[in-house]
Each structure stands twice: as C-alpha cells, then as structure tokens.
Amino acid sequence: MGEGTFGQVLECWDRERKEMVAIKVVRAIKKYREAAMIEIEMLQQLGKHDKGGNRCVQIRNWFDYRNHICIVFEKLGPSLYDFLRKNNYRSFPIDLVREIGRQLLECVAFMHDLHMIHTDLKPENILLVSSEYLKIPDYKSSSRAPCSFYKRVPKSSAIKVIDFGSTTYERENQNYIVSTRHYRAPEVILGLGWSYPCDVWSVGCILVELCTGEALFQTHENLEHLAMMERVLGLLPQQLLKRVDRHAEKYVRRGRLDWPEGANSRESIKAVMKLPRLQNLIMQHVDHSAGDFIHLLQGLLRYDPFERVTARDALRHPFFMRDHLRR
Fold it and tell me: So which residues are the signal peptide here (predicted)?
C-alpha cells in the first residue's frame, strides 16, 4: 500500500477477523526496530484512552517475524498527501478544510492531554478513513484538459492520524531536530527547545496546504526557511532571535535575520520574494469565512511557542463555530 524509509505497508487478509488489514513491516535495522517499539507502546496507550478509536489509527496486533517488527492496523483510505497528488494538487473546499482541521486538532489536543507530542504531523501522516470520492466541477481550473474541469473531493471528511514512531512524552529541554522540514516550527530550527506547540505549528502548515493545494514553505535549507516565514508571516520577534542556540547563531546578524545578505543564491532570494503574505494567499482560495480562517492560522502560526494557541483553545475558534450557525 505504500513504503517509506522505515519499510513498507502491505494490505493483508486477517483470516481470524475476516477483514482486510494494513501491516507495517519494519526494516530489520536497529533504529527502525526501536522506533517501531516506541510506536507500539504509544499506540497501545492511545488505544486505551481513545475508546471509540476515532482519532488515531487503531493497532490490532503486532509480531516479530525474522527480525522485522510487523504492526497490524485497521485498513484506512489514502493519505491527504496522496489524495492531493492524485488530484493534481488542487485545493480542498474550505468546508472540508474546516472538518479535517477540527478532527486534526481534536486528535492533537487528545495526545497533548496525555502528555504526548507527535512531532511529525504532515499530510502523509493523516489518512482518510474511506477512499471513496466524488467529482465536482472545478471552476478555477486554468488547464485546457477536459479532465481538469473536475476535481475529486473525499466523500467523507473522516480522518485518522498515523505514524507514532517519533512520538515522545513531554520532557524538559527537548532540543534535537524534529518534524519533516516543511512542517517544522521556528523554535526547532533556532534550537530553542520545543514542546507541544511544535505540533500546533505543523497543523497550521497543513491547513494552509489543504486550502491552497501546495506546501506553504517549500525549502530544504534553514535560513531560506526562516526568510520564507518572515515573508509570509512578518518579522521574527527580537526576543526569539536573542535566544538562539550556538548552531543557529549564523542565521542572525545584528538582532535580525541575516537575509537577504546570507542567502545561498539569487534563486533562493527569488523563491522567497515570490511568496505572498498569509492573508493574500488565503484570500486567493477562500470566498466565505476567509477572515475567521486567517485569524485561526495566525494563532496556529504564532512565532513564539509560548504565545501560540493550544490545540484545545484552537477548537473554540469561531472558524469551527460557523457550521452550527449555518445548520
């Protein structure tokens, strides 16, 4: 069904339960085995508290086969990333972004209540429960190909979060690098230590991506990444830049980001320059409820992790209250 650096996921028939399952077969390498054992422990903990099993993927069983840890999961649909890719990276309607956002924040709040930090939230790690989809007209399509006048929309907005191999319990001074690049919070890059808010930043990046169809910060380099943040969200606060650790000092000069002076190339400067401000980016894609959505994103993408909205508080945002009024 898919593969990653860890190994591969196979679709299998469970003869006892008489149902299809997904089995994650982990490579027989020490560090991947260790991550798999962490994942099993986290999944069992989550399963204990998530009675309905409607937030995180459910573990059915696990076994060790010829040095490969094999974890048996319920079978789900495609990841949000795969869905976007097969849809030519066309955006999701805002009402679907709202439904997915609510469930994602509920899952994150639930994990944080249990003192767990996922640390690797991204569209690849969020699966639709069902693979069914509808085709709807896509009026924004600029392409001439007839198939592009329609875009796919999932029939159900139900999602579950997967991949708890990097999940960790909250501890003091967690300083090592976490998260996949595009979804990595500024405090992680600046070496300021991280905690629950790093998950919230990732959620903000994911919601922008679902709304626009493309990753918000497409970069592979720290200074360029920080410059992109400034371009989209405004200047990094001085008090954050003052506290950077010695590895990140090279990105700061005279109390501000060393940009564009420190850029690697003219291409890099161009890549940053072409990014719009957050409000403008969202307004290009959202007609109704854009104001509420922008306000929510500004809370999720606040630079200072201590000022960033918590997952629990984000769920009370007016953006998620709109439906009740419409219904």
Answer: none
